[in-house]
TrEMBL record:
MF term (GO), any: glycogen phosphorylase activity
Catalytic reaction list: [(1->4)-alpha-D-glucosyl](n) + phosphate = [(1->4)-alpha-D-glucosyl](n-1) + alpha-D-glucose 1-phosphate
GO biological process, one term: carbohydrate metabolic process
Keywords: Allosteric enzyme, Pyridoxal phosphate
Family stated for the protein in its record: Belongs to the glycogen phosphorylase family.
Gene: glgP
Chain positions found as N6-(pyridoxal phosphate)lysine: K613
Pfam families linked: DUF3417, Phosphorylase
Descriptive protein name: Alpha-glucan family phosphorylase
Coiled-coil region(s): none
Domain DUF3417, residue spans: 17-127
InterPro entries in UniProt: Agluc_phsphrylas, Glyco_trans_35, Glycogen/Maltodextrin_Phosph, Glycogen_phosphorylase_DUF3417
Signal peptide: none
Length: 737
């Protein structure tokens, strides 16, 4: 491989730029820029309209700019100072040798990094290869690994059309459509070999030879490699293997997982990367364990069972959901068609191969489970919250018949979020003033977060109101645009300009519209809901966003019911649905709402992270006690929440109707008796001091725990390099804080 390939794309872009602006190219090709404090103005200033049109893509924005416009910026002293300061900060960041991990776990080196496999990565909206929580978590995982200096490479797929785009028709029904991603104008680069040809790996998929090329994305100090089968020399069917994220049938799914798992290991081998640990983030990547084994058998000539322990010792696994649909299983016939050529290379019989993914051994009709394969072939496994760890141990006890449920070897590391990405710059500036300019590097320090109490109520509230105004303006823009595209009545389009009110208590609900997440729970008693939202003295408003999977008819019906509710004459200005949910919309929501609503059926929310993002922005959670909220929620002596609210009883029942009834009644009662009165208890200047007290509690109790710096430290000390766990506590206190 050419040593200069890492900078080729940035160099090519820099040639378009006047000399004073050339460092913009380096920044554009490294997503580090998207979690800096100056991220809003850096590229948007070039051409705000183009920035919006291209989905906040820095490369496309620069490419489209006229040379005249660029020379104008090149003589703007303020803009040049901004670029110069950012470039210095970037260079310091990228060249830093003395990092947290270099002191805590120096044995993890760049020569043998952690390889992090995931089917989706949510880095930024300009790289649309994500669908939701799993991808956002993976993106934050890479960002904090970069911040802490963890040697890591990401492995994923580059989808030609990504996840589907969403629009709603005039009946409120979700319509799915796709757009091609312009790879040549995105912040990524096709890796080439010494001959200048794309670096390719070869896979056999259903008796066809498939060539897969590799793209590189820089995420701070971490490199993300994305695999792509869309090549002219592939069969048209195979070109679409990396066409859509979570699209197609089971054959497409297993083919994609072959590309991710088997192809990912081969790509690392072709790149000369020898990982010390392979981290399977969800079961989609479990086939990578088989390819690691195949390479070891090829190298040593030993049998599969001779090298199985070595393979297991190099692999770790994170499971992300107790929902059955999240655990891929394939029929023996489908496994035959994809792996009949492969198991002889492992020196296994068909029965031995199928047994690796079988929950129950000896049943010829037992499907092949990717989660079972991962659990069998990894030395460590974890859920993503304390409760999810318990649920996972119960789910998979069948694999460990000699162990009691509490001894099933599945632990937990609770998810977190990347604070610099999700904290609004306006609040980050406030934290700079009161917590210290290095607050982002001390996100796990509870003593630092305790200083939140020093911020005057009026100052925190005024900044929150500004962010809320921004959310209201953004929601109006998105709703108006959607109504125009649907060709709705002119009066309804114009009414978008008066949608929502900054002075009204605002709830946010944004997530995948899967039935178990109960997106319409708040409508269960429609009359009571109308009474609460339509209260003239103390009104309430709510903003919804999210997609239903294209095959999820019930999820689409939930969205349709919400859209019908949006047009109810009694609350027409109090309810909004933002279409085509993405990272940018997510940021605006978590930064601007007063209350974040989360009401899944227990115990199906493995962790959830959107509510954690809200905490960094002073929002308050109102959630069932599931996932991370079981660990985050705190109640006072009177049983009421001090940093948020808990919906329903902390009880699990298989009676869904009963749980829905209990939880909806609890939600209405919380709104009527606690949340609404607390918000509208305001002084003469409109500051709700008791509410702000809860905002501060939300920040200082949750921020130090539910961030990805803490999460990555847990992975390093408990999973990646567990031998240091006995000595790392005092080191953590000294250097991570």
């Amino acid at each position: 491989m050419s040593n200069s390939s890492a900078t080729t794309a940035a160099f090519r872009l820099s040639e378009k730029l006047p000399f004073p602006l050339k460092r913009l190219a380096d920044l554009a090709y490294n997503y580090w820029w998207c979690w800096t404090s100056d991220r809003i103005a850096l590229f948007q200033t070039i051409d705000p309209q183009e920035w919006e049109r291209c989905g906040h893509n820095p490369v496309a924005t620069i490419e489209s700019a006229s040379y005249e416009r660029l020379t104008q910026l090149a003589e703007d002293p303020f803009y040049l100072k901004q670029i110069s300061a950012l470039a210095r900060e970037f260079d310091t960041y990228m060249s830093q040798q003395d990092t947290w991990v270099s002191r805590v776990a120096p044995q993890v080196s760049q020569d043998n990094p952690i390889a992090y496999f995931c089917a989706e990565f949510g880095i930024h909206e300009s790289l649309p290869v994500y669908s939701g929580g799993l991808g956002i978590l993976a993106g934050d995982h890479l960002k904090s690994s970069s911040d802490l200096g963890v040697p890591m490479v990401g492995i994923g797929l580059l989808y030609r059309q990504g996840y589907f785009r969403q629009r709603l028709n005039r009946q409120g029904w979700q319509e799915d459509y796709y757009l091609d991603n312009p790879f040549d104008k995105m912040p990524l680069e096709l890796i080439k070999n010494e001959q200048g040809e794309p670096l390719t790996i070869h896979l056999e998929i259903r008796q066809r030879q498939v060539k897969v090329q590799v793209w590189r994305v820089q995420v701070g100090r971490v490199t993300l490699y994305l695999l792509d089968s869309d090549r002219n020399d592939n069969d048209p069917i195979d070109r679409w293997l990396t066409g859509h994220l979570y699209g197609g049938n089971l054959e497409t799914r297993i083919a994609q997982e072959v590309v991710l798992g088997v192809g990912g290991v081969r790509a690392l081998d072709a790149l000369g990367i020898q990982p010390s640990v392979y981290h399977l983030n969800e079961g989609h990547a479990a086939f990578c364990t088989l390819e690691i084994a195949r390479l070891e058998i090829e190298r040593t000539g030993k049998s599969f069972y001779d090298i199985e322990g070595k393979v297991r010792n190099s692999c770790v696994f994170t499971t992300h959901t107790p929902v059955p649909a999240g655990h891929d299983v394939f029929s023996p016939d489908l496994i035959d068609s994809f792996f009949a050529h492969y198991w002889p290379q492992l020196r296994l019989s068909r029965e031995q191969f199928l047994a690796l993914g079988a929950r129950r051994l000896g049943d010829p009709w037992e499907p092949f489970s990717m989660t079972v394969l991962a659990l069998r072939m990894c030395r460590a496994a974890n859920g993503v919250s304390e409760l999810h760890g318990q649920v996972s141990r119960k789910m998979w006890t069948i694999l460990y018949p000699q162990r009691s449920e509490d001894k099933v070897p599945i632990g937990y590391i609770t998810n977190g979020v990347h604070a610099p990405t999700w904290t609004a710059p306006l609040l980050a500036d406030l934290y700079n003033q009161y917590l210290g300019a290095d607050w982002k590097n001390r996100a796990v320090d509870p003593k630092m977060w305790a200083k939140i109490d020093e911020i005057p109520d009026e100052e925190l509230w005024s900044r929150h109101i500004i962010l809320k105004e921004r959310l209201v303006a953004y929601t109006r823009y998105k709703v108006k645009k959607a109504r125009e595209q649907r060709g709705e009545d002119h009066r309804l389009i114009q009414a978008s300009d008066s949608l929502l009110d900054t002075n009204v208590l605002t709830i946010g609900f944004a997530r995948r519209f899967s039935p178990y997440k109960r997106g319409d729970l708040i409508l269960r008693d429609a009359q009571r809901a109308l009474k609460i939202f339509g209260n003239a003295q103390r009104p309430l408003q709510i903003i919804f966003a999210g997609k239903a999977h294209p095959a999820d008819e019930e999820g689409k019906r939930i969205i349709q019911r919400l859209m019908e509710w949006c047009h109810n004459s009694g609350i027409i200005n109090r309810v909004a649905f933002i279409e085509d949910y993405d990272i940018y919309t997510g940021q605006k929501l978590v930064q601007g709402v007063d209350v974040w609503l989360n009401n899944p059926r227990r115990p199906l929310e493995a962790s959830g992270t959107s509510g954690q993002k809200v905490c960094f922005n002073g929002g308050i959670n109102c959630s069932v006690l599931d996932g991370w909220w079981c660990e985050g929620y705190q109640a006072g002596p009177d049983g009421k929440g001090t940093n948020g609210w808990a919906i329903g009883e902390d009880a699990h029942t298989s009676d869904q109707e009963l749980q829905d009834r209990i939880d909806s009644q609890s939600l209405y009662q919380l709104l009527e008796e606690e949340i609404v009165p607390l918000y509208y208890d305001q002084d003469a200047q409109g500051v709700p001091h008791h509410w702000v007290k809860m905002m501060k509690a939300s920040i200082k109790t949750n921020a130090p725990l539910f961030n990805t710096d803490r999460m990555i430290a847990d992975y390093v000390t408990q999973v990646y390099v567990p031998e240091i766990s006995k000595t790392v506590e005092p080191i953590l206190a000294k250097v991570l804080l």
